Amino acid sequence: MLDLRKLRYFLTVAEELHFGRAAIRLHLAQPPLTRHISALETALGFKLFDRTSRTVALTAQGRSFLPYARGVLEQVALAQVMADKLAAGTAGQLALGYASSIALSDLFSQAIQAFAQRFPDVQLTLVECASGNLGAQVADGRLDIGLSRLLPQRTDVQALSLGEERLVAAVSTDSPLANLAQISLAQLSAYPLILFPADYGSGLNQSIEALYRLHDRPLRRGPTGRQITSIIALVAAGQGVALVPECAQSLMNKGVTYRPMMELEACAQLLVLTRAETKNVLIDAFLTVLTEAPHTL
Q: Over the chain (297 residues), what is each successive 10-residue block's mean pLDDT?
């Protein structure tokens, strides 16, 4: 096993090519330094330096060994830097789960960008899944943070509200609804509504279904899509209408027109889920970035 301290001594002597100057740099007397270099040569099985009373020069083996010794010490230094960052909570891994409709929001992209700039040594893993599954994955540790539209029904997960996002109607450009400045739920309910699948656990579905119940409107179910992009594609194909978060308007599709809803209650919440009573510096850091980001969902 190579002694890191002796490797540092070797590197210093190799840089100075003078035992006296090297000893001064190392804050070490010259005789002990000479003994340490001799011990390293014995351990390696070859001479590192040719020494005379006047000169010190690297041997051929010493020159060949030098970059490897330097590389080891550089890696040790990098390892120490990373260890310090891990201890301080500025490096590591963070798994972030999110509902598909949230990924389109400005808040989502701004928070990820700000976090990556602030913590470049953190490996951020993004996992898309239904809101209904986010709570369980946060609870069992598969995810550190969940961005959901659905309040989890469990005590081991805590939820922080980041506010609500308005819902807009996505209608086919060929539909008479596309000619309206605003659309009421009464008008929208005359058309098949494209939702996520019933077994998908969508928080957006729950918000929409609650809106229809609140206004006592019949909900005609149309085709389903497992992602917000597939829902918009079905609207473009004339298969029905959809209620989507305002941020979905960034999905420009020549067959779709977006219109605001008249009902003030046409909203979907945005929640941040974390494990209850869990202390984690990186989680706290990401929550801080989220709360500092402009709340234009």
A: 89 92 92 93 93 89 93 84 70 86 87 89 88 89 91 88 93 95 96 91 90 95 92 95 92 90 94 86 87 63
Residue 22, exposed/middle/buried by CB under 10 A (0-12, 13-18, 19+)? buried
H helix runs in the chain, sequence order: 4-16, 19-25, 30-44, 60-88, 106-118, 131-139, 185-188, 203-214, 228-236, 281-292
In a domain, 186, yes or no: yes
Please report whether residue 297 resides in a domain: no
Q: What residue numbers bound the domain in which 154 lies?
A: 94-161+271-292
**Is there a single domain that holds both residue 69 and residue 216?**
no
pTM score of the predicted model? 0.69
120/204 same-domain check:
no
- Amino acid at site 95: A
